[in-house]
Amino acid sequence: MSFRRNPKTYHRFDNVDDALTLFNEMIEQHPKRSIVEFTKLLVALVRMRHYATVVSLCSQMELLGVSHNDYSFNILINCFCQLGGIDSGFSVLVKMLKLGVKPDVVTFSTLIKGLCNRSKISQAVSLFDEMIEKGYQPDLIVYTTILNGLCYTRNTD
């Protein structure tokens, strides 16, 4: 089955097998597709909640020489956080910095949410403070995440 799809239709996958078939076709193409095309496929898998699959595919992409960008790194961080691997999410942040890929508000908000979901509120607040110190402007989602985390811990005391 060939998946010469319009890239705009990647989000319409209804099963993981079709997405994996397309991924395998994409990695066999020469020259390889851009990270933008791979990212569209990863987003489709995230929408299906196949976080572990995304982590695996990102690993394969790296082994095959497909370079990540800030968006694909954010997807990977999100998947680790969804899987409860906040430490792995921070490892991706370190990798981003080493490669010269600048994190953005989405990067920090994803990590803050991951920390809050693991009831690591003080670490989330520290990361929030660090984000502000570095000049990042938090959006409403970041504030809401921090507030929800603080309220949750107060309700469980």
Keywords for this entry:
157 residues, mainly alpha, 69% helix, disordered N terminus
Task: Tell me what you see in this structure.
The chain is an all-alpha fold. The chain folds into 2 domains: 92 residues; 53 residues, no CATH class. The chain is 69% helix and 0% strand. The protein contains 8 helices and no strands. Helix 4 packs parallel to helix 6 and helix 7 runs antiparallel to helix 8. The longest helix is centred in the C-terminal third of the chain and has 17 residues. The radius of gyration is 17 Å and the shape is globular. It starts with 15 loop residues before the first helix and ends with a helix. The N terminus is likely disordered. Belongs to the PPR family. P subfamily. This is Pentatricopeptide repeat-containing protein. Keywords: Repeat.
Structural class: mainly alpha
Task: Note the main sheet.
Answer: none
Report mean pLDDT, rounded to a whole number: 87
Which spans have pLDDT < 50 for at least 5 consecutive residues?
Answer: 1-5
**What general form does the structure show?**
globular
Helix content: 55-70%
SSE pattern: HHHHHHHH
How many H/I helical runs? 8
Query: What radius of gyration results from the CA coordinates?
Result: 17 Å
Percent of residues in beta strands: under 5%
**Structural domains: how many:** 2
Instruction: Compute the separation of the termini in Å.
Output: 55 Å
Could you give the count of β-strands?
0
Pfam families: PPR, PPR_2
Protein name: Pentatricopeptide repeat-containing protein
Family: Belongs to the PPR family. P subfamily.
Keywords: Repeat
